[in-house]
Structure formats: structure tokens, C-alpha cells
Design brief:
183 residues, single chain, globular, 65% helix, mainly alpha
């Protein structure tokens, strides 16, 4: 079930308030860039997605470069309105990890060996697990309960891949965190 309405962003309010309090009490000298940049990065990601959504819907409305000769219906728009839930979930995971993992603030901002390991992990086990998990979702039992919602969109948009249910998002979140927890 998707979080509905504009109040779903209040889930991130404690993290934003903690960031503001932390920076106000510690001052700019003890500024922790990784912690402070999390919320603006999420907002930039939402803005970036919204730009692509708007551009895609505009091009569909203008009937340019259509793959399927159908118009975008309101049912699909309503079904895909929860595209930002995954970004909110990522924000919660990042803030909780930063709050609970000791000495995370001591990690360097960039390590070349960590970037190489991340790329190799993504190309190897992460993509492998994504693929087979997605294949498993096409089994009748899982498809009828979880995955059919995703395939109900005939006119594919940039956010069509984000229209999933929470259980599926959490599994994908765990798979993608293989890279972060290893490096």
C-alpha cells in the first residue's frame, strides 16, 4: 500500500529537524557534509524525477514519438502517483544508517577502491539478484499479488518502474544495499 497525500513527506521531518538542530548547535566548523547533504540530495532527486515525468507527459499529450497509439488515462496517473515513495524510503534508510552506525562520519567522501568494488558488486551479485527476483515476481502466485500492478501501465513513463508495492520495494532496497554495506 502506498503512502498517500502530501503528509507522507512528514516521515522525513524528524531527520530534517535533527540535521537543522545539529548544524545550529555545532556550527559550521564541525559541519558534517555527508549528513547535511542527504535531504538536499533527496529533494534534487525528486525534482529531477518530476522534470522527466512532466516532459514525458507533455510529449504524450502532444502525441510526439508515441510507441503505443493510446492516450495516458487517469487510472494510470493515479496508479503511478506514489513514485516518490522509494525516494522517501531511501531517505529513511540513509538517515537511520547514519544515526545507528558508529563512526560513519569518519568515512572518507571518496575512495577509488570502494568505487571499483561498488561497480563490480553492482555488475555481479546485485544485477544477478535483481534479475532473478524480477523473474520470480512473474510466477503466477507473486504476479497476481504484487507484480501485476507494475505491468498494468500500457503507456510506459519514466516512473512506471517505480510503481511497486512496499514489500517489493523493501526487497529491492535490501538488494541494492549490498553495495553500500560491503564498501
Amino acid at each position: 500500500m502506498a503512502m498517500d497525500g502530501g503528509f507522507k513527506y512528514l516521515v522525513l521531518a524528524p531527520a530534517a529537524m535533527h540535521t537543522a538542530h545539529r548544524e545550529a548547535t555545532k556550527g559550521w566548523g564541525d559541519l558534517d557534509p555527508a549528513y547535511t547533504v542527504m535531504l538536499p540530495a533527496l529533494l534534487m532527486r525528486m525534482t529531477h524525477n518530476q522534470i522527466w515525468i512532466s516532459l514525458s507527459r507533455y510529449r504524450t499529450a502532444c502525441r510526439k514519438n508515441l510507441i503505443v497509439d493510446r492516450s495516458l488515462d487517469f487510472e494510470q496517473v493515479d496508479r503511478e502517483r506514489s513514485w516518490d515513495d522509494q525516494i522517501i524510503l531511501n531517505g529513511l534508510v540513509f538517515y537511520l544508517a547514519y544515526a545507528t552506525i558508529p563512526n560513519l562520519h569518519l568515512m572518507p567522501m571518496w575512495r577509488t577502491d570502494g568505487a571499483i568494488i561498488t561497480i563490480l558488486l553492482h555488475m555481479g551479485p546485485v544485477e544477478f539478484l535483481y534479475y532473478w527476483f524480477h523473474r520470480a515476481l512473474h510466477h503466477h502466485f507473486l504476479y497476481s499479488r504484487y507484480h501485476s500492478h507494475h505491468h498494468a501501465s500500457i503507456i510506459t513513463k519514466p516512473i512506471t518502474c517505480k510503481t511497486t508495492q512496499w514489500k517489493w520495494r523493501i526487497v529491492y532496497q535490501k538488494i541494492s544495499k549490498i553495495k553500500g554495506t560491503t564498501c
